């Protein structure tokens, strides 16, 4: 019966990819992966050539990424009259480009010419291509396959050992194992598939239990450091409206003061929370002192400007640390900018017809990289802005690891979609990988304090207006294997998988 499906391989692979996206956050419908990846492995195994196998993987990826990244199109609807027509273009472009990252693993696996070897090779090459996706064309490692496990804190603890790429390898080995049954239809394949699924499940669950028990939070583990997260939930269409700028600014201040500040150490606003360049506007800087704790600091995002030799001012997506005297104590500039959001790659080479559209995207200047802040009486901390948090093994300076991280973001662009939930999951995975506490402030949500295990101890829901005061843990940072060795660990496991695939290539029929 399955052989009759070969005539519809492209359509079925596209459908399998579309269905597989249901396993991504915030839906987590994992059972569909056993069908989708199992079917994809079957079509790879039955392919007559590299081109045919690549095509199967590509169309699967087209569906997977088009649905998984569909929230990106919501940013265009903020100014729908000008940019709304690009929404379907974004969906097609997401699937069309990122489909390559599943096409190549499928095509390369085909060369192994043995079902078991192809199964192992496909999982390994998928992991390697996820890693490549983190840096090619500045990188976009969003929705790594390992993120489908984040519905339970126990499931993501192995990220502390070999990162999210390692989790992706395990997930794909387990879910695509059903393809062995489709392909071989014998007892040995069924035993291998069942055994793999049980071993992967047991490994993930047991390690998670052990690590969570070791670092379980309690009242006794809380420190005296209190952070106040401020989430005004300003709709993106109103955020930069000239008529509402002053109201938005005052709303941040009012919310920050809505409860006494006496016992608060840090008041934290989100990305570009201040609509004003505070270093150029002393009157606005004096106003903001109303929101600063008496003995602490306010941390806010804003756009600041630097004068260039060309005679122009270049914007930077920045963070300021402000004391109760209105002094800017320190700052951080976002260094990993969003392509097509904060700058246009190869802008000067684009055709004339699209240049009016690109002018709506500011040409931000990148910062100089990681920075560690050391304020009197407080543990050291680092800062990241928006999607800088999504890059595994790139969120801290490993030679000067801070005790905790502050991540400012604004997911208001993406409305009530999967995007903000997926962004939070990536932050949890980074916390578990590096063993570091992350304090996340978002304009519309989801603001949260996340332990070094990736566990959220307090949060403000999406589109909720309010504040939350949270005591940070005494143990803000713990060492992890992945934190020490980085992507060398998951890539080594992928390489070992490929070696095993080579070993089995001509030994099993």
What does this structure look like?
- The protein has 509 residues and is an alpha/beta fold.
- The chain folds into 2 domains: 233 residues, no CATH class; 259 residues, Carbon-nitrogen hydrolase (Nitrilase/N-carbamoyl-D-aminoacid amidohydrolase).
- 42% of the residues lie in helices and 15% in strands.
- The chain contains 17 helices and 12 strands.
- Strand 8, helix 15 and strand 9 form a beta-alpha-beta unit.
- The longest helix has 28 residues.
- It is globular, with a radius of gyration of 24 Å.
Question: What helical percentage do the residues reach?
Answer: 40-55%
Give the helices and strands as they follow along the chain: HHHHHHHHHHEHHEHEEEHEEEHEEEEHH
**Main beta sheet:** 6 strands, mixed
**Order of strands across the main sheet:** 5-4-3-2-1-12
The tally of helices reads: 17
CATH topology-level name of the largest domain: Nitrilase/N-carbamoyl-D-aminoacid amidohydrolase
How does the SSE layout of this entry go?
Blueprint: H1 9-20, H2 31-46, H3 50-68, H4 80-83, H5 87-98, H6 100-110, H7 115-133, H8 159-176, H9 178-184, H10 187-214, E1 222-231, H11 236-239, H12 245-256, E2 266-268, H13 282-288, E3 297-307, E4 313-322, E5 328-333, H14 355-358, E6 372-373, E7 381-385, E8 404-409, H15 418-434, E9 437-442, E10 447-450, E11 456-460, E12 466-473, H16 481-485, H17 488-505
Parallel strand pairs: 1-2, 2-3, 7-8, 8-9
Antiparallel strand pairs: 1-12, 3-4, 4-5, 6-7, 9-10, 10-11
Helix pairs in contact: 1-2, 1-3, 2-3, 2-6, 2-8, 2-9, 3-5, 3-6, 6-7, 7-8, 7-17, 8-10, 8-15, 8-17, 9-10
């Amino acid at each position: 019966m399955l052989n009759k499906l070969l005539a519809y391989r492209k359509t079925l692979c596209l459908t399998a990819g579309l269905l597989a996206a249901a396993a991504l956050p915030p839906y987590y419908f994992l059972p569909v992966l056993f069908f989708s990846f199992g079917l994809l492995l079957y079509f790879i195994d039955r392919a007559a050539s590299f081109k045919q196998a690549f095509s199967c993987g590509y169309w699967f990826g087209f569906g997977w990424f088009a649905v998984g990244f569909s929230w990106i199109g919501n940013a265009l609807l903020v100014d729908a009259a000008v940019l709304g027509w690009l929404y379907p273009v974004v969906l097609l472009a997401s699937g069309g480009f990122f489909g390559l990252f599943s096409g190549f693993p499928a095509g390369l696996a085909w060369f192994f010419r043995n079902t078991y070897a192809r199964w192992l090779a496909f999982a390994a090459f998928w992991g390697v291509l996820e890693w490549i996706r983190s840096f090619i064309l500045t990188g976009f490692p969003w929705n790594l396959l390992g993120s489908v496990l984040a519905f339970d804190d126990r499931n993501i603890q192995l990220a502390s050992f070999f990162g999210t790429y390692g989790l992706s390898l395990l997930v794909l080995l387990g879910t695509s194992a059903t393809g062995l049954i489709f392909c071989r239809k014998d007892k040995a394949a069924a035993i291998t598939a069942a055994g793999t699924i049980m071993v992967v499940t047991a490994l993930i669950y047991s390690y998670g239990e052990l690590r969570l028990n070791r670092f379980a939070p309690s009242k006794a583990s809380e420190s005296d450091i209190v952070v106040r997260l401020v989430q005004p939930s300003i709709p993106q269409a109103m955020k930069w409206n000239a008529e509402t700028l002053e109201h938005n600014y005052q709303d941040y201040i009012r919310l920050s003061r809505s409860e006494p500040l006496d016992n608060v150490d840090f008041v934290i606003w989100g990305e570009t929370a201040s609509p004003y360049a505070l270093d150029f506007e002393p009157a606005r800087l004096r106003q903001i002192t109303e929101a600063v704790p008496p003995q602490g600091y306010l941390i806010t995002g804003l756009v600041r400007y630097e004068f260039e030799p060309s005679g122009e001012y270049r914007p930077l997506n920045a963070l300021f640390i402000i004391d109760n005297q209105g002094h800017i104590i320190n700052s951080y500039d976002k260094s990993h900018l969003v392509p097509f959001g904060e700058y246009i790659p190869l802008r000067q080479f684009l055709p004339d017809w699209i240049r009016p559209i690109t002018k709506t995207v500011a040409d931000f200047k990148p910062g100089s990289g990681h920075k560690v802040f050391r304020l009197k009486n407080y543990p050291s901390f680092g800062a990241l802005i928006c999607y800088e948090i999504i890059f595994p093994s790139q969120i801290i300076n490993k030679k000067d690891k801070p005790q905790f991280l502050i991540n400012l973001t604004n997911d208001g662009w993406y409305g009530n979609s999967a995007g903000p939930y997926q962004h939070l999951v990536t932050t949890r995975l980074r916390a578990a990988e590096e063993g570091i506490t992350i304090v996340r402030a978002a304009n519309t949500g989801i603001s949260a304090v996340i332990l070094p295990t990736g566990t959220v101890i307090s949060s403000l829901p999406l589109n909720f207006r309010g504040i939350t005061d949270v005591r940070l843990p005494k143990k803000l940072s713990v060492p992890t294997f992945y934190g020490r060795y980085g992507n060398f660990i998951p890539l080594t496991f992928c390489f070992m998988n490929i070696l095993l695939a080579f070993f089995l290539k001509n030994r099993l029929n």
